[in-house]
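A quick aside before the break. I want you to see a complete sequence-to-structure record at least once, exactly as it would be stored in a machine-readable document. Don't worry about memorizing anything.
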Amino acid sequence: MKNNILLFVFMLSFYTASASVDSNFYVNPSIGNDSNNGTQLYPFKSLNQAAKRVNKLVGKGAITIFLAEGTYGLAETV
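That is the input. The structure line, written in tokens, reads:
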């Protein structure tokens, strides 16, 4: 019985950890490219691309966008 309870707690913690995924995206208008994956080494160029990726992940955990120093122009509403 004790082993079953421990197994249940372990499975529950695994399920809740996999259901919520924290995501970080990086944007750099100088060296970024919107075909990149938004990591620190391969940042997006525009806020619009970061917003598109965030919209795909809404409800799947915390999302943070890190902005590098620079000028960010908006050609369309984000």
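Two observations worth writing down. The longest helix spans residues 2-19. The radius of gyration is 18 Å. We'll return to this after the break.
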